[in-house]
Amino acid sequence: MGYTNSSLTEYVKLSPNHSGQRVRAIDRITPHCVVGQCTAEGLGDWFAKTSTQASSNYGIDRDGRVGLYVEEKNRSWCTSSNANDQRAVTIECASDTSEPYWMNEKVYAKLIELCTDICRRNGKKKLLWFADKNKSLNYTPKSDEMLLTVHRWFANKSCPGNWLYARLGDLASKVTAKLGGENDGTTEPVQKKYYRVRKTWADAASQLGAYTVLENAKQMVDKNPGYTVFDWNGKQVYPEVAEGAANGMMNADCPFMVKVSVPDLNIRKGAGTDTVKTGKYTGVGCFTIMEVREGKGSNAGWGKLKSGAGWIALDFCQRV
Ligand SMILES: [Zn+2]
User: Fold this and answer.
1) 153 C-alpha to center of ligand 1: Å?
2) Helix (H, G, I), strand (E, B) or coil at 171
3) Is the pLDDT of residue 149 over 80?
4) Is residue 189 very low, low, confident or very high in pLDDT (cuts 50, 70, 90)?
5) How confident is the model at residue 163 (pLDDT cuts 50, 70, 90)?
6) CA 33 to centroid of ligand 1, rounded, Å
7) What's the CA-to-centroid distance between 74 and ligand 1, angstroms?
């Protein structure tokens, strides 16, 4: 099976410190404590030095941002164990510098999200935590199982710290619940994915049918003007709406004014969360957008500020 990387990644700085492609398929996740409330960039700089002789696949920084340092396909140098890291995705999490190596809630919330994403992309439906070294290291996960392991089992250190260690059961059950797999012996029903033909998503009574095949739903709409195909999340999929078209924030609409209602909307140097932040925020107010481009992290696209300060995510803007 092909390896992929997480789309939750907001910062990439690939480290030279790894062993090349892993020789075991991924069936473990090993979360670590960084021992410092680091930024994704700071951790990337540290792993970029060959003298560091260490790396991790991912890092979660103090703001909950995910950094990618060693691609998932490669074996990182993280857990003091070749046997573990050949099969584990390793994640360094921003923490305090001493026991219990406390982590803030943004870090923990992102760890749940990242573990869920890693499991999902690698075909796993359950994340397991045994809290027992021998049991864990002797356990062969089933094809849909991912196992949590910890650094302290392989080296004389506290990592991931007592704070996170005490929460690994919670982490495993939350991730498993999100994956919709079995947990505590109960099976959650698998959500059926239907394309529904309705006048509006809210008007369930107008539904003409529910289809597993999108083409069939589209044909129904073609025969019934005024109807729309919605996916299982209620998102309009046919007739297609260009993102931004509905709110008048297309490139063709430029220049236009938008209202920003949050005080801390980042201004970036380019159109996407994969470009650097300028370190400045828009603040609450109205701004003129001169150009719209597609980019990572904003479905409605990115808008170039007239001031020349940079680009902002139009997902957080309202057209005025
Ligand atoms: Zn560690």
Assistant:
1) 10
2) helix
3) yes
4) very low
5) very high
6) 6
7) 18
Say whether 251-319 and 9-187 share the same fold. Answer: no
Mind spelling out the 3-state secondary structure of 176-245? Answer: HHHHCCEECCEECCCCCCCEEEECCCCCHHHCCEEECCHHHHHHHHHHCCCCEEECCCCCEEECCCCCCC
User: Which residues are placed with Cβ below 5 angstroms of ligand 1, an ion?
Assistant: 32, 151, 159
Could you tell me if 110 and 171 are in contact, meaning their C-beta atoms sit under 8 angstroms apart?
no
CA of 287 to the centre of ligand 1 (A): 45
CA distance 299 to 295: 8
Q: What is the pLDDT of residues 226-284, one digit of tens each?
A: 888 988 877 778 887 655 555 778 777 788 899 998 888 999 999 999 999 999 999 89
Tell how far the Cα of 17 is from the centroid of ligand 1, in angstroms. Answer: 15
Continuous segment of H or E residues that includes residue 211: strand 209-211
What is the dotted CATH code of the domain comprising 251-319? Answer: 2.30.30
How far, in Å, from the CA of 124 to the mean position of ligand 1?
24
* Whole-number pLDDT of residue 191: 54
How far, in Å, is the centroid of ligand 1 from the Cα of 4?
Answer: 23
* Ligand 1 geometric centre to CA of 149 (Å): 11
pLDDT of residue 188: 41
CA of 145 to the centre of ligand 1 (A): 22
Residues β-bridged to residue 210:
196
CA distance 79 to 155: 8
What pLDDT is recorded for position 181? 55
Centre a 10 Å sphere on the Cβ of residue 187 and count the other Cβ atoms it contains: 9
Q: In the CATH scheme, what is the code of domain 9-187?
A: 3.40.80.10
- What are the structural domain ranges in the chain? 9-187, 195-238, 251-319
CA of 35 to the centre of ligand 1 (A): 9
Interval 55-69 mean pLDDT: 97
